[in-house]
Amino acid sequence: MKIGILTSGGDCPGLNAVIRGAVLKGDRVYGDEFVGFRYGWRGVVEGDMVPLDRHTVRGLSRQGGTILGSSRTNPFEGEGGGPENIQRMMDVNGIDAMIAIGGEGTLTAARRLVDEGGINVIGVPKTIDNDLAATDYSFGFDTAVEIATEAIDRLRTTAESHQRCMIVEVMGRHVGWIALHSGMAGGAHAILIPERPQSIEQICEWVLHVRDRGRAPVVVVSEGFHLDTMEEAHSHKGLDAFNRPRLGGIGELLAPMIEERTGIESRATVIGHIQRGGVPSAYDRVLATRLGIAAVDAAQTRQWGSMVSLKGTDVEIVSIADATGGLNTVPDYRYDEAAVLFG
Amino acid sequence: MKIGILTSGGDCPGLNAVIRGAVLKGDRVYGDEFVGFRYGWRGVVEGDMVPLDRHTVRGLSRQGGTILGSSRTNPFEGEGGGPENIQRMMDVNGIDAMIAIGGEGTLTAARRLVDEGGINVIGVPKTIDNDLAATDYSFGFDTAVEIATEAIDRLRTTAESHQRCMIVEVMGRHVGWIALHSGMAGGAHAILIPERPQSIEQICEWVLHVRDRGRAPVVVVSEGFHLDTMEEAHSHKGLDAFNRPRLGGIGELLAPMIEERTGIESRATVIGHIQRGGVPSAYDRVLATRLGIAAVDAAQTRQWGSMVSLKGTDVEIVSIADATGGLNTVPDYRYDEAAVLFG
Amino acid sequence: MKIGILTSGGDCPGLNAVIRGAVLKGDRVYGDEFVGFRYGWRGVVEGDMVPLDRHTVRGLSRQGGTILGSSRTNPFEGEGGGPENIQRMMDVNGIDAMIAIGGEGTLTAARRLVDEGGINVIGVPKTIDNDLAATDYSFGFDTAVEIATEAIDRLRTTAESHQRCMIVEVMGRHVGWIALHSGMAGGAHAILIPERPQSIEQICEWVLHVRDRGRAPVVVVSEGFHLDTMEEAHSHKGLDAFNRPRLGGIGELLAPMIEERTGIESRATVIGHIQRGGVPSAYDRVLATRLGIAAVDAAQTRQWGSMVSLKGTDVEIVSIADATGGLNTVPDYRYDEAAVLFG
Amino acid sequence: MKIGILTSGGDCPGLNAVIRGAVLKGDRVYGDEFVGFRYGWRGVVEGDMVPLDRHTVRGLSRQGGTILGSSRTNPFEGEGGGPENIQRMMDVNGIDAMIAIGGEGTLTAARRLVDEGGINVIGVPKTIDNDLAATDYSFGFDTAVEIATEAIDRLRTTAESHQRCMIVEVMGRHVGWIALHSGMAGGAHAILIPERPQSIEQICEWVLHVRDRGRAPVVVVSEGFHLDTMEEAHSHKGLDAFNRPRLGGIGELLAPMIEERTGIESRATVIGHIQRGGVPSAYDRVLATRLGIAAVDAAQTRQWGSMVSLKGTDVEIVSIADATGGLNTVPDYRYDEAAVLFG
Question: In angstroms, how far is CA D66 from the centroid of its own chain?
């Protein structure tokens, strides 16, 4: 079988390990041949591809980024896309199947290609934020949590030295998993996530409680968190007419609000892109390698439209539809479990 | 409720995070009072304990080791032990329940104390090696894998520079999980685990295959691995009359055997105790904190004889008997999955 | 002798190691007694102090932050300050000498206290930015460079995956040492420092050259860098009427300018406070410990007004005046040495 | 000019950064052409070389090991060596000069090639152990110290948990720099180096003193340390007839001796090869890059027989003879400075 692989969407530690796992398994066990599409769906649409063999994937388990490049191109948007063109590109190049490694958008596109175009696609879930349903975790998330936690550890000592409140903004546009885990790991005094809006009064109550115990408050906030009443933010002139923070992100918005209400000097730090680049953690390397291996197994058994996923300690095959049916949000019992440690 | 906590057996990153999680939850939600027994069961038997409060556990999520100390004392061995003495010690000190954090030995003792003495004990599984059944993973294992993987990454560059074979011995007396995961993460060319004895011929075949591809072989071996025929080892005089390696461990035994058979300069490195000390990974901090919280919940609901465990993404309550009924060995399908990458 | 220690100014990894080195040497060799002033000069002015003994400094070599706390209080400003009050506070508490650990402001104040008030002060240089003259390096700088370099390593893989230009803003208000060293270590394609203003044309030329070679440009910029003509920036509306960047710092200013001129998607990341908190590097622990030891030696020999400093591999005693006489800027030959690697 | 580069002797983090620095400077500024000899002097003798250009050295500043490979071949030993053959190989391949990156043996050979054969060689000092004179530090040392320090940090928590004495064996065959710096950084209670033999009584006195203060002793020992009377060791049967430890190294020898005399459970850990492989620290990357750049400058100015070295903050050109004239041992005042912290 000749299999094309693509990586799509934002960078994520472990992408290369998936590619390596797939190529090594396919090459050695099934005698598959591989090509890599360059820059995600763009390479598919444009027929831009490179051969992938055993030698190409050498040492990739520990290499961050993706050797194939990535983009946010969607095969159903713009010119040249759509199932017909993709099938034609595959036919011309003798490609039997595709392994699409990506997030919600990529997997939805993959599913439509299968459903609407009968194209042979296997999905591999990729999400720093851990926002995909139908998989316990995906690769990249553990690395992101580790990096955010190390940052919190460092910021904490400075908070204590200066009796400051530190607001640490981590990734998580729609779900709060990175904030929840890095906050628990780093011993945060408040964790603010998109799923659970809070009032500025509640946040300041936690902050003041910490100060009253003689400590320096550390608040971890997902980029997608919002206050439960935006009037507060508006009255502070921190939000523009479109409800977006005027300066930077939510961390930059909260810091002056907390400082004004509590009198505690407050500083925001945005961890940013370092959460999604560089050497993957061992956990993510193992998971990504296993997902790559399983994706080739799924292709071998022609389970088009399926996605590989982690369930407990096992890698399983599920329907892409299961993964794209809804967000994997932080459930209340997980947030409440962590909230015991707040304040 | 007044609850005593003890940590027993070998050191493991996350012990302090369990203690912290338990104390914070019990103190804030249930109004529990806590004491810590010093040096495991020894402190129980001798009534050696210290009060544990919110202040004591400050900052513990990221601190390696155990503030309570540990030992390998077994409450059923030696003088002073047994259920009666322990119940008496608890009565004298007004202790209602115990949380015992430990491995197979500790949990078995805990179970006997419940079964034979009617003592109120909750177990928390602790195992660097990941050898306990009834929990997907336990804390400490992820940190150990991460440290071993970093070591493999470092050793690999030296192997390549000198065209050497590197044999990396990691922990795992009875099960090969650390070797399996760190070997997959580090891109090892052979992984040798207790569950799957191999012949020296097979090992050398992998090693030579790597060399023939122009690369430097990296072999990861669990300390508990043994060759499938010990004659080989005996004829090499590497084993003594009791079948133990004469010099150091299995890594030191294999290096000269591989060098002699393949002609490739071979060096063994034993990662050793650094796998079980120091700052826990974020993964282990989160897991340990959650287990500590759940242990107090289990005490609150008086589920004596139960153990907290990880199932998928959830922390659940199981019977200690389930955890101590058998080793959590690496199943064949997991080893075979990894073996595709060998050679 | 009874010696008071204070830490002043921004946080810096190694502060605690200085305290530990001083206390252990003084306690063991000279029989000194120590107190720590809390929150820098504020503690001196207010007589807020805690005893420091062998037990207090246990484990401090690897602990970030400062157990004494810090502030930006200046003894010559506000009420209650000035040499007379400080001498009175010392007399009342029986303090014979002070060790002041801080940057330019603290050392200048220390020098005035000696010169104008005849107060017994020894200085220890503290600067993340490495901007103090009269010492080869000071503690904290190596840790900051290491953290910035790790961040650059991570950001680079994302840059390559997305064919982006990454602008990394590091600390360095007046001098470019952190940018120079982390940029060299991380293989940056341009390094922008306060000492060497550049035109936006030159920066874009470097960036385009990198792109033309098929790579993703990485630009490291000190927070204190400015373009050599501010008209550029003004015309771009990135600067306000006071010549300050409108949004965030210089990185946020450069990113859209580079993107507009080169057509390469550009993203800024601000490393921020994580550069100055947390566990010090081994290099900084050794240096800080040695400086602490030497400060007590200088007190013992009553070299008031002197400062401990690193010269080559040796710790020496210099005049505080030498350190505060001018900034330790990046010399041209060092910048030009690095510039060979640009583009 | 056409310049050949070789790396020789044991692996050392930063070798690749030297190569990169040299090639980029030579290529861009002087229009030099480069080849790399494979596996050190062996490649020189055998004429085994590969072209090195800008593309080859991409990303090398952060890559451990050496892309050229290394060996312990000496050009003055065995067949094929000697100045005449090397000059002939250079003439045949049109090579004008050589940059030899290596330790004492390599630099001595380089010097003889210049002195006896009039060959154009520039030396770059490479030593994990920091045992070369005429340079303040060389690359690789800082990384080794950092790795050893991280290991000590991890081992310490286990020591405390189990009230054990931990003996940590680090590299340093003839000089104790790694032990001295990692021991100071890690807060060791005794540091044992080749330059300062100690009696087992003195060592146990330090160990017992630590125990009496309620702490767990950590002893850092260079592999080349020896007790000041070997009778002790002999009577313990730890040494064989050739005065070499019977089992493993000095750490394995000391552990049972300390345990027997003090009654404190004692464990040895050998950090081993992980000290010399993998990603270099930022410090080492900067230093190595600068040395590579300076080596090409020295070639350009035809300073044959010279070596690049670090003096304070500057890279200078010295005579190879200065570097090979004697070991860079730990001076007494540095050991005594650290010894204040023992016990």
Answer: 15
Together in a domain, C116 and C79? yes
- What mean pLDDT is reported for chain D? 93
**A interface mutation test: which of B284, B289, B300 has the most A CBs within 10 A?**
B289
D333 assigned to some structural domain: no
C196 is in an annotated binding site: no
Cα(B29)–Cα(C109) distance, rounded to whole angstroms? 50
Q: What is the pLDDT of residue C186?
A: 98
Domain count, chain D: 2
On whether both C49 and C162 belong to a single domain, the answer is no
CA distance to B77, B169, B206, B225, C343, per residue, from B191 (Å): 38, 10, 10, 10, 43
- Chains contacting B (3 or more CB pairs within 8 Å): A, D
Bridge-based pairing of strands C266-270 and B97-102 is unpaired
Quick one: A124 and A6 in the same domain? yes
Q: How far is A72 from chain C (nearest CA, A)?
A: 9
Tokens of C319: 């005049």
Residue A343 lies in a domain: no
Report d(CA C81, CA C76) in Å as an integer. 5
Per-residue pLDDT tens over the stretch C53-110: 999 999 999 999 999 999 988 888 876 678 999 999 999 999 999 999 999 999 999 9
D331 inside domain: no
C20, C60, C61, C212: best to mutate for the D interface, most D CBs within 10 A: C61
Q: Are A169 and A261 found together in one domain?
A: yes
Q: Are residues B103 and B115 in the same domain?
A: yes
- Partners of chain D (3+ Cβ pairs below 8 A): B, C
Q: Structure tokens of D235?
A: 């009577």
CA pair distance A64, A53, nearest whole angstrom: 19
Give the number of C-alpha atoms closer than 13 A to the C-alpha of residue C216, restricted to the C-beta side.
22
Distance from CA of D45 to the nearest CA of C (A): 32
Q: Tell whether B337 is covered by a domain.
A: no
To the nearest whole Å, the CA of B331 is away from the closest chain D CA by 30
Q: Tell me which DSSP letter residue A184 carries.
A: H
State yes or no: is C27 an active-site residue: no
* Complex-level ipTM: 0.95
Do D239 and D287 share a domain, yes or no? no
**Could you give the CA distance from residue A266 to residue A254 in angstroms, rounded to a whole number?**
9
Examine the domain organization and report whether C154 and C134 are in the same domain: no
Report chain B residues touching chain D, CB-CB < 8 A.
7, 11, 15, 39, 63-66, 69-71, 147, 150-151, 153-158, 160-163, 166, 247-248, 267, 269-270, 272-274, 276-279
Computed from CA positions of residues B52, B55, B61, B63, in that sequence, does the dihedral angle turn out positive or negative? negative
| Sheet order of strands, B165-170 included | B190-192, B218-222, B165-170, B266-270
In whole angstroms, what is the distance from residue C14 CA to residue D282 CA? 18
- The predicted pLDDT at position D75 comes to 86
The tokens describing A335, both together, are 């947030």
CATH number, domain of D77, equals 3.40.50.450
DSSP class of C170? E
Burial class (CB in 10 A: 0-12, 13-18, 19+), D35: buried
Q: Are C225 and C286 in a shared domain?
A: no
Instruction: Look up the CATH number of the domain holding residue D272.
Output: 3.40.50.460
Beta-strand runs (E) in D244-313: 266-270, 306-311
Q: Using CA atoms of D260, D262, D264, D267 in order, give the dihedral in degrees to the nearest 10.
A: -60
Structural domain boundaries, residue B259: 142-276
Q: Which residue in chain D has the smallest CA separation from B265?
A: D71
- Which one has a higher pLDDT value, A93 or D246? A93
| Chain centre distance of CA C320 | 17
* Helix D141-162 and helix D282-300, axial crossing angle in degrees, nearest 10: 160
* Cβ neighbours of A237 (radius 10 Å): 9
